[in-house]
Amino acid sequence: MRAALVFLLMAGAGQAQDTPDFAAIGTLFADRCVICHSGTDAPLGLHLDTYQGVLNGSDNGPVVIAGDAQSPLLQRLRGQAEPQMPLDGPPFLSEAEITLVANWVAAGMPEGTATFAALPERPRPAPGADVLWSDVEPIFLKVCAKCHSDNSKVGGPPEGLRLDTWEHALAADERVAVVPGNPEMSEIWRRITGLADPRMPHDGPPWLPEDDIRLIRDWIAQGARAADGTLAPIPVGARIRLRGVLTGETEIDGARFTVDGGTRIDDLPAIGGQAEMRGEVQPDGTVRATRLRDR
Ligand code: HEC
Ligand code: HEC
Q1: Long-range contacts: 77-81, Cβ < 8 Å, 24+?
Q2: Are 131 and 125 in contact (CB under 8 A)?
Q3: Dihedral, CA atoms, 246, 252, 256, 257, nearest 10 degrees?
Q4: CB within 6 Å of ligand 2 — which residues?
Q5: Whose CA is nearest to atom 33 of ligand 2?
């Protein structure tokens, strides 16, 4: 009897200690969620950088409901609703971290005394200023990664293209999406402007704001640098296929290429006509056409 009583008392004390307030939750969210869930372009309007933002929920309504173990946010953390959060996982949250959030919801989401200030709007380098991966990363994470990542909600990253890390964005397994220094030749730029179909993001409109499109263009034009300034390696030999309007003798949609004796040319249309170019990236980042024809 005495032993059982002591056990109960200890269990009760343990529970009291385990009831977290927003100090712990806010710190966890700051670490794992706010790179996406902050600012005017927060996915589904869900802001997780402040207590009020969490309580406000998303465009769909509340994400935490006091005492509800099936609150949408908890379902996302456990992978009961897809895509699982954090979207850039794995790694997802540990069991202990998920239990912490679940206990906080069970206790009615106490705020506590710690305050978290709303994150400032993402800084946007002025036109012509240096643009690094860290400047464009939030765009790719917030808008593209729900499809273009291993956590894809469309059953795998389309065309093998993952846009969740610098290395992945530059990977040249199937085709390249980025030709460093050459935005016009880069499939990413062609897709976000609608020069190539289907336009991205695939679930748009809305399309990316002009300012984001400009930022991605500058990032590629300046060599698609990493967050620490490292220039992206040129994917020498990578294959390129362009279909669009012949805007010059050796130019489609403004993307210039070189033609030589080895280029096979069939039924080339007049300037202004529809053409297709297949080519290969050269060591200097230019593209040499291997085939050019009308379509
Ligand atoms: C890499 C970006 C990213 C990170 C990091 C991230 N999310 Fe998300 N989150 C998204 C996107 C994008 C969506 C919308 C997905 C969709 O359209 O289905 C989303 C949706 C959600 C939803 C669904 C809201 C609703 O209305 O159904 C919840 C809840 C959520 N996230 C919570 C979290 C939590 C909690 C974390 C941190 C543990 C987190 N997210 C981290 C990008 C992210
Ligand atoms: C809702 C899912 C979804 C979202 C969001 C999305 N994409 Fe896509 N993306 C696709 C699908 C599906 C394809 C393949 C479409 C096709 O070419 O038929 C694709 C293809 C692409 C391609 C062509 C790849 C290749 O090798 O042909 C690029 C580049 C691309 N997306 C970039 C982006 C960028 C940049 C964003 C964010 C601004 C984005 N996508 C957002 C689903 C998505």
Answers
A1: 77/101
A2: yes
A3: -90
A4: 143-144, 146-148, 154, 158-159, 161, 163, 175, 177, 187-188, 191-192, 198, 200-203, 208
A5: 200
- Which ligand has the nearest atom to the CA of 33? 1
* CA-wise closest residue to 276 among 261, 227, 217, 257: 257
36 CB under 6 A from ligand 1? yes
| Alpha carbons 287 and 255: distance in angstroms, whole number | 9
Q: What is the pLDDT of residues 219-246, one digit of tens each?
A: 999 999 999 999 999 999 999 999 999 9
Does residue 129 carry a pLDDT above 50?
yes
**Distance from the CA of 252 to the center of ligand 2, in angstroms?**
21
How is residue 145 written in tokens?
């990664």
Task: Give me the amino acid identity at 12.
Answer: G
Other beta carbons within 10 Å of 73: 24
Residue 63: CB within 6 Å of ligand 1?
yes
Does the pLDDT of residue 279 top 80, yes or no?
yes
Tokens of 28: 């966890």
- CA distance linking residue 20 with residue 31, whole number of Å: 17
What is the C-alpha separation between 75 and 64, in angstroms, rounded?
10
Distance CA 145, CA 72 (A): 20
Between the CA of 201 and the centroid of ligand 2 the distance, in Å, is: 6
Tokens representing 19 are: 């009831």
Please give the structure tokens belonging to residue 87: 């979207």
| Structure-token pair, residue 139 | 């765009």
285: number of CA atoms within 13 Å, CB side? 18
